[in-house]
Amino acid sequence: MSNSTMTPRRARSLTPKALLAVLAIASGATAWASSRTSNSVVGSEGVVVYNVPDLAGATSTRSGQKVDGVGCQTQAKEVVKYHIHIHVAIYVDGRMVRLPGGIGITPPPLIERYPSGDFYDVGLYDCLYWLHTHVADGIIHVEAPAKQSFTLGQFFDVWNQPLGPSRVGPARGAVTVYENGRSLAGNPRNTPLLPGGAIQIDVGTPAVGYRPVSFKVTGGCGEGTTSCSVPKG
Prior knowledge:
The chain is of the alpha+beta class and 233 residues long. Strands 4, 5, 9, 10, 14, 15 and 16 form a seven-stranded mixed beta sheet that branches. The protein has a three-stranded antiparallel beta sheet with strand order 11-12-13. It has a two-stranded antiparallel ribbon with strand order 1-2. It contains two helices and 16 strands. It has one domain. Helix content is 12%, strand content 28%. The protein has helices spanning 16-34, 152-159; strands spanning 40-42, 48-50, 72-74, 82-92, 95-97, 110-114, 117-121, 127-129, 131-132, 139-144, 163-164, 167-168, 171-172, 175-179, 182-184, 197-203.
């Protein structure tokens, strides 16, 4: 499917192909988890989900009004011509926390249950901000009707959580931001959301220093899709 195709989300149904995708995801997650500690699994997007606390809940998300120029689209009216992914890792006083799934999705979200965890999506009675998360795996999705630049500050404003040089959500302390291994100066709010970018946020002490991350979003959420669903038939 081309990035330029303007396609609303369709109702999910488990076709034979989709059923095989579910089994493949579950099987892959089980195999990966067996080789790792019990603190992580491979989630429904093909990215590791760590069993750590959420930085804050997703329910603080704004209620559908435009935020910093970022719109919120219903399932029926969703148009996606620009879809990229950014991984965000967060450490508070040296301990890992995570972004929850469902940021940027107004209630009531559609929740799809998988052995590796929940997948949050737009349903019939809510809307999806262009900046959002589907899974608690650190992946921010940019799904916008046109290509444009976005920042970490816009994402946190959609989430309705503070972000600045001395605060990240409820966590307080000196903030250091890395993007693709480079320490960024200035206000964390200005951190650009780059295609395939890896952002790390350290809050407080001790600072852990940059920890490299590689990721690839797979399935119906992969690059080039004009919508995001797991599985995709």
